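Cross-posting from the modeling subforum.

Setting up a comparison between two proteins and wanted a second pair of eyes on the formatting. Protein 1 (sequence, then structure tokens):
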Amino acid sequence: MTQFDAERTALLVIDMQPDFMPGGALPVQGAAGHNERLVGPVRDLMDAGLFPVQVATQDWHPAGHVSFASTHPGRDIFERIEVNGDDQTLWPDHCVQGTKAAELHPDLPLHRLAAVVRKGMDPQADSYSGFRNNWGPDGRRAPTGLAGYLHERGIDSVVCCGLARDVCVKWTAEDAVAAGLRSLLVWDLTWPVDAGNDQATRAELEAETVEIVTSDALPELAAR
């Protein structure tokens, strides 16, 4: 694997919010009861000084969002339905705007963030990716503005970490490639909603030319 120019690489910290952590509405697997297993390693990477540009994404849904099972009477959590012509998993109510569970985790060094991109704000469209919404009623995936921001900053590569590996991290890493960016995913600094998806997730990422790395390799890969 070739080195990346750290000065032209952004760290993307994806959806590090209490609702996706143990005790939240939609927790990841593998860290039951131990938020520090999630927050600590990401905090250390943010503090390491490898990446001058660091951006967080934040799920930020209005109440009654189309992705909530509670919005669809008679439907169950994790049931799949069609929304806007595409497959939609129905989730528990999560990351509702203005709630504590939707805030970025306070133990992260939030002062290091150059920007926070909120997503999932359209009540009629989900948004797994930090770059684009899922398909909306108009049949398009509306951009969040993240790609334009990164290109304006002279960024040509991104390093993705956070939650959840098999959903929002995956979609963000793949959309980074579509936006013309080199995309690296730090496997040990992501955690899945369903660990049973890991093999398929890895294969799908690699098929989209996302490079899978580990956190201990980053200092050697970062050319400065």
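Protein 2 (same layout):
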Amino acid sequence: MADWKLGAVEAKFADLIWAGEPMPSAQLVRRAEEVLDWKKSTTYTVLKRLCQRGIFQNEGGVVTALLSREEFYARQSEEFVAQTFDGSLPAFLTAFTRRKKLSREEIAQLQKLIDQNRG
């Protein structure tokens, strides 16, 4: 199973890429220095790690996403439910709503999702 977890700093770095891609790697180095106070070597080390995990690619000096931000976080959520709740979305929702009651708007949104995915 792929590792769909990002640490807090990795997530900020990934957001830099998603916000500006396609992006020349030199520009990414400058942005990471401005926003994260990273050195060039740190940027390339983390970028390489995220490329190896299949999230981004750095081809010809241009960094692009292999997965959109939404797709990445959808996969991360699926992995969390699979690992923590044996893949059971109802078990996750039960646990979630024990401590936080859903608003009427949230219930309506969930009902709409259920209706759209029925059948």
